[in-house]
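Think of the structure tokens as a kind of shorthand, similar to the way a musician reads notation: each symbol stands for something richer, in this case the local conformation of the backbone. In the example below we present two proteins back to back. Begin with the first one, reading the sequence and then the tokens, and try to describe in your own words what changes along the chain.
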Amino acid sequence: MKSDVQYNQKSTSTSPHADCWPLRSDSRAKRLFDLVLTIPGLILLSPLLGFVAVAIKLGDGGPVFFRQQRVGKNGAVFTIIKFRSMHVDADQHGRLVTIGNDPRITPIGRVLRRTKLDELPQLINVLRGEMSLVGPRPMVAHYVDLFTPEQRRVLNLMPGITDPASLTYRHEQAYLGQLGDPEWVYIHEVLPHKLQINLGYASHANIGTDLMVILRTLFTR
């Protein structure tokens, strides 16, 4: 169920053009587009979802799903759903960013992350209206706190399962794993660039461009 909590936004319209965006996340056409793809997708993928759920459960006996509070559109806090790819309570220990050979990742979790199958349960978030198929990836409050007023414009948009920034940084975990201080690099280099990419995309996005992002996500290795 969507949380009623509203994350405190310091500012979302400091830019003179902030209110002039084509906020396609509010459009009925985009919502219909999401539902037309999501409902059949969940039905067709149900055997695969069941297989993955059983594999996770047999792996270590822990819960199948990983749930975490994320900041969504207009600062609304909701619970994102993923297949669990780490050891139980791994998010309570260690850094927030995940690196390539992170010891917290389970054997089955490595396969899920490499194939992006861990993201499939977020189709439920889309069905609930908490997320879209395409939109900026929702983040935990810790990172949202670091946004500049300009970057906070991203909170005007519905978060998504995939976005152009995710495609650009599809090897992010491996890249961060090579660094001495991955958290610092993520906060000061990767995160600002991701936000820049998504804010630029939002200024011209439409159903056609969203469809292209989905296809690139499915077929880009």
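Once you have a description of the first chain, move to the second and do the same.
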Amino acid sequence: MTMKIRAAPFMAPAIALLATLLAGVAPPAAAQYQDRVDVEAYIADIVSRYDFERDALERLFHDAEKQESAIEAMDRPAEAKPWHAYRDIFLTRARVRAGVRYWHEHHELLERATARFGVPAEIVIAIIGVETYYGRITGSFPVFDTLVTLAFDYPRRARFFRRELTEFLLLCREEKMDCTKVRGSYAGAMGLGQFIPSSYRAYAVDFDDDGVRDLWNSPADAIGSIGNFLARHGWHGQAPLGDYVATVAGDYETLLNRKMKPWLSISDLDERGVRVGGFMPREEKFALFDFQHENGRRKTWAGYHNFFVITRYNTSRRYAMAVHQLGQQVHRAYRPAEH
């Protein structure tokens, strides 16, 4: 006969800890941040500057859990892949078809946004398509914990993420959000369009006029906010994004991938003895990029002003090209007469 011993309630945590140790499993990590000198200095600073309640912030940091997987994801971004591998993530038939459906479903909102902000519907759709697969994948990382982790345990970009952490706390106060409940990407981006906190505060709009800027549950707010972001960064109506170019003569490789912002003209190429094939307007400034295709082939792309504007959303030429090409494919497949 085996004697069963019922542990007193207060003994349960100790027994659970002993069981995990005996099983070779590490116990849950203790609170990571509340006693760190750098965190204490940060809390004191934003309490002084923004009139936060110190006790409330200390409780938040006491409960914050380090997000190791966010650090790992930061060190292997999709944008580091060669173009052909990156492209294949987003330019699929399924994503194009889903983009067409999204356009049909929200065509009135998209028309209103285009009229107000001047950004073509297919660009807005493509950004939502690339960022979250039209809202299917908005992220499951706890945004507060993630930003704390990147602000204090990711030295390479700590300054940036401390600013975003402050912006997030201000955003939650302004929008009356419980910051412990908000979920987003491994970099703290949120909603259908994956706005980082500073962009959310600066560019999100209440496009459905319900008194709330909700980028998760309101397609209207997400569509309007993306349009507003691009417009505020200087989007030029229906102007082209760029063109593939063929080098006819001259050494142009030193001009590739140097800047995101357009800085060259045909006259500049002429002065360097570089000749390119295809039509490129002489008055249009551009930056030159190369994109690696299959079998190591590379193609040169001249990115104009609107291409640069998309890189303000995500500072990657691969990202901007994916948005451009997904938008083109959705636009070609869309049939407005079906409404």
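Compare your description with these statements about the second chain. The beta strands are 141-142, 183-184, 242-249, 275-277, 287-292, 298-303.
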